[in-house]
Short-chain dehydrogenase
Amino acid sequence: MTIFIAGGTSGIGYSLAEHYLAKGFKVGVCGRDVSKIPENHSENFKAFEADVCDINALSSAVNNFLLNDENLDLFINCAGSYAEDVAGNISYEEAEEMLRTNILGTVNCFEVARNFMKDQQSGGIAAIASVSGILDYENSSLYTKTKRSVIQIADAYRRALKPFGISVTTVAPGYIDTQKLRNLNNNDLSKKPFLIDEKTASEIISKAVNDQKEFIIFPSKMKWMMKSLSILPASLLNIIMFRKAKWMKND
C-alpha cells in the first residue's frame, strides 16, 4: 500500500506516517521544512520539501514518490495553519497564511490526489479539518471559518469523486497533544478539554480511512459537546464561544 501525507513532517501527519510504516506500508511525506524529520528511517519512507500552496511542487513530490507506475492508494492532507485572532487581534500576514494553507492548500491536495487516482479508479483521500469547523456562528474565528471550508470542500470532492471509486474521509479532531499545540500554549494544556495523544489520534484516523467513513469527529466527548453547542441560537453561541476563547487566553 502506498500512502502520501501532506504536512507529514511533524505533528499528527508524522505520527500517521509512523503508524503506517509500522504496518509495512510505503509512505511519502512532504512539508516546508523536512529538517524536522528524525533520521534513520526505513527504505519505505521518503520525504519531500513542498508547500501545499504550490500545486506544481506538490504534484512533483507525489510523482517522485511513486516509482514504477505504482498506484497511489491513500493521500492524507494534514497541512494546516493556525493563528490566534481573539477579538480581531491578527495581522494580515497571519490571515493570508491561514487562508492560503487551509483553503487553497486543501483544494491543491484534492486536485493532485485526484489526478493520480482517477485513471486507476480507486484510492482514498483524507482531509484533516477541526471539530471547531462544525460550528456555524457569525463571530467565529478565521481559523474556524477556514476549517469549516475544509469540511465543505471535502464534501464537494466526495460527491465528485465517488463515480471514480475514490473515497473521501473528512476528519474533525478535537485537541491533540502535539508539540505545535504545546508551543502555542506555553506548554500548558490544562485548558484543552478531552485531550488525546498523537498515537491514539493516528489509530482513530487510520481506522476511519480504512472503513471509508465519510465524516468523523473525535474524541466522542468532544463530539457530543460540540453537537450540543451547535443547536444553540447563534446569538447565544456567539457569546459562549467568545468568552471561552478569552478564558483560554487568560484575557
User: Anything to note?
Assistant: Residues 24 and 44 are 8 Å apart (CA to CA). The chain is about 45% helix and 15% strand.
